[in-house]
Design brief:
A: mainly alpha; 0% strand; flat; B: alpha/beta; 6-stranded mixed β-sheet; 5-stranded antiparallel β-sheet; 9 helices; 24% strand; globular
């Protein structure tokens, strides 16, 4: 156990990258999700079709394959990305597809009368979306999106294969140095658990805050 | 205020409104009656463009909308109409994530871009008018159906409309809550507001309306003064309808 305590700063640095990748991908993934969900609901035929294809391809292929394509595959076309950049891009694209489906369902769950009331009062479609429909859909989407975010936190371990020194890879580097396995693996498992639980806690609070009107 | 010329509406093959010619004059209260499926709600929803007319034309609040206009042109004109009309729905359709006051002033802030203080002042005076000022900071889910509908009326009035459209405003209310809503609408009628009301409340139509329009199967079957319509309907269709009530 001493080796773990001795190397705790290194592991914490890995945990920091795990969190950073999670949050950055969540942020950009959410932006992608908004556009894709709206494209699928309001777009014309080619736009709807493209959005559908995106969701289908991402959800139908392993995240690990997507990460490897972005980092190693794009080299063939002369695109050589930093590992961390590749991780951000691959995971944002991945989470965006899952979140867009959640958001689409949430948007569709808002009764049509809400839109009609807003239109009848002279609001434009954009104003209606922003002020009336979205705020309600977000509340519906938060619990399932929370699950996606927690899944994301754990999936960041996949980017260890493209040499991003997040939590998992930090432990592997230490193991290669000290030749002990279990203490490091148990330690990072605990760290993942703490981070997931923290996330759940924050999401629950957010859910409560958004539910005051029910 | 409203004048339609051969206004028609079909959903795919189904013709819901067949060449309707109808007129609502300024200051007039018109009750639209008819069995379900007669097209009365669809007609009302055409007036502010929630349903798109597929044939004919209409002039609402001085804006002409014609089925032959381009979609873009119609959208622009419909928006103009909406700025001058208020609508009250059967299901209230209050915004659940906004407080009572926020519901009332939303369009003032977003559409008319009024400063907050001015909008709040206006909103509070409207809530006082429908007797719900003390509820201004609660969310709609805490209100009874009757109270929600009164808030919805205040919300529709906030834009200072020239014309109010009511789509079965009491149909989803418990019987004991109907009167408080009708009282508010009567009050508006007394103040000279132009209104088109789709309703099943015969007594109310009789008391408040200046004119009855009776629809069935997508056409206007009969129209006239309430007294004449209720005591001595001309058509068999109207007689049958009134007998069932």
């Amino acid at each position: 156990m001493d080796v773990v305590i001795e190397n705790l700063p290194f592991l914490l640095r890995g945990a920091y990258y795990t969190l950073l990748i999670t949050i950055v991908s969540m942020f950009f993934g959410s932006i992608i999700a908004v556009f894709v969900a709206v494209a699928r609901l309001k777009g014309n035929r080619p736009i709807r079709w493209m959005a559908r294809a995106y969701v289908s391809i991402i959800r139908g292929t392993p995240t690990l394959v997507q990460i490897i394509i972005v980092y190693y595959g794009l080299v063939d076309y002369g695109i050589k990305l930093q590992p961390l950049t590749a991780a951000y891009i691959a995971l944002s694209i991945s989470i965006g597809a899952y979140l867009s489906e959640t958001l689409r369902g949430a948007l569709q769950s808002i009764p049509k009368g809400q839109m009609e009331a807003a239109y009848a009062s002279g609001m434009t479609p954009v104003q209606t979306m922003r002020r009336i429909i979205f705020p309600q859909a977000i509340r519906v989407a938060i619990p399932p999106a929370g699950n996606t975010f927690i899944g994301m936190l754990k999936e960041t371990s996949l980017v260890s294969v493209i040499t991003v020194t997040e939590l998992l890879r930090s432990s592997q580097l230490l193991i290669a140095q000290y030749y002990v396995y279990m203490p490091f693996y148990i330690s990072i498992a605990i760290m993942y658990w703490i981070m997931s639980t923290g996330f759940s806690f924050l999401l629950e609070r957010l859910e409560k805050r958004l539910s005051i009107y029910v | 205020m409203i004048k339609t010329t051969a206004l028609s509406k079909s959903f795919q093959q189904l013709e819901v409104l067949k060449e309707i010619d109808v007129q609502v004059n300024s200051g007039e209260v018109v009750a639209i009656l008819g069995p379900s499926g007669s097209g009365k709600s669809t007609l009302l929803r055409c007036f502010n463009g929630l349903e798109e007319l597929t044939g004919g034309s209409m002039q609402v609040c001085g804006v002409l909308v014609d089925a032959k206009q381009s979609k873009k042109e119609r959208t622009k004109r419909i928006r103009q109409i909406r700025l001058n009309t208020g609508m009250v729905f059967q299901q209230f359709n209050l915004y659940p994530h906004k407080t009572v006051l926020q519901n009332v002033i939303e369009a003032l802030l977003i559409v008319k871009k009024w400063p907050k203080e001015r909008a709040v002042e206006k909103g509070e005076s409207l809530l006082a008018r429908v007797g719900l000022l003390e509820k201004k900071d609660v969310y709609p889910s805490r209100l009874s159906g009757g109270q929600q509908q009164r808030v919805a009326i205040a919300r529709a009035l906030a834009m200072e409309p020239d014309l109010m459209l009511f789509d079965e405003p009491t149909s989803s209310l418990d019987p004991e809550l109907v009167d408080e809503v009708l009282a508010v609408i009567k009050e508006l009628a007394k103040d000279g507001m132009t209104m088109a009301v789709v309703t099943h409340e015969m007594q109310f139509a009789r008391e408040v309306a200046d004119r009855i329009i009776f629809m069935a199967d997508g056409v206007i079957v009969e129209e006239g003064k309430p007294e004449a319509f209720f005591t001595n309907p001309e058509t068999d269709r109207a007689k049958k309808f009134l007998k069932k009530k």
